[in-house]
Amino acid sequence: MNTTAPLTDLAVRDIAIGRPGATAIFRRFKIDYCCGGGATLAAAAEERGVNIEALVEAIETLAPRSNTVPVDTGALIDHLLERYHEVHRRQFPEAISLAARVESVHGDNPDCPLGLTQHLAFMFDDLETHHQKEEMGLFPMIRCGETHVDGPISCMTAEHEDVLEQLKGLARLTHDFTPPDGACGTWRALYALCQEIDSDLRDHMHLENNDLFRRFG
User: Fold this and answer.
1) How is the chain split among helix, strand and coil, in percent rounded to 5?
2) By three-state DSSP, how is residue 40 classified?
3) Is 92 helix (H, G, I), strand (E, B) or coil?
4) List of long-range contacts for 115-122, beta carbons under 8 Å, 24+ apart
């Protein structure tokens, strides 16, 4: 990241890579840092109608990045598999189970997220297909030292755009992950897990789009 340029002129994705904690700030301000991360901070803030001074102030309180993400490409792939692929495979079945319970018990409540179980199941099915393409195709190609991987990478980034649309649907169904007053513990746990899924998927796609895949661009 160019540390001499004004923060407002830097690409969102580069700030997300260079400042630990920036992704949480971008989520709070609803700034896209994974698939639309090539925009400058100023442009992204303008598009979202965000106060740029408040955004810059929040980011500038963060410390410079320490080496929390592997630099070696093979190690980065291992990190993606362990921290995200396997975690998603635990998160989604639990979320689907919780959603089914909430819809079954509270289906007559006007705040009940009807359709959430089906939406999560659809997301999980799509995501597992995506993971298999990476695990059986793209990642082994990279590990073998192949450099002509533009086609598979383009396919993966296009599918990431689809995931972003699915996450928008997840936020709508859960009212931005906010349970209603008086919601039971299961309902609250469901929305907390859905918010965790949202955060993890965005961070996962950010690391792939803006770190791993850019090494071959």
Assistant:
1) 70, 0, 30
2) strand
3) helix
4) 115/173, 116/170, 116/173, 116/174, 116/190, 116/194, 119/166, 119/169, 119/170, 119/173, 120/92, 120/95, 120/96, 120/170, 120/194, 121/96, 122/166
Q: What is the pLDDT of residues 98-152, one digit of tens each?
A: 999 999 999 999 999 999 999 999 999 999 999 999 999 999 999 999 888 999 9
Q: In whole angstroms, how far apart are CA 8 and each of 11, 33, 35, 51, 54?
A: 8, 14, 19, 12, 12
- Rounded distance between C-alpha atoms, residue 7 and residue 112, angstroms: 42
Token representation of residue 162: 């689809």
Q: Say if pTM beats, i.e. exceeds, 0.90.
A: no
| Measured distance CA(24)–CA(182) in Å, rounded | 27
* Burial of 61 per CB tally in 10 Å (0-12, 13-18, 19+): exposed
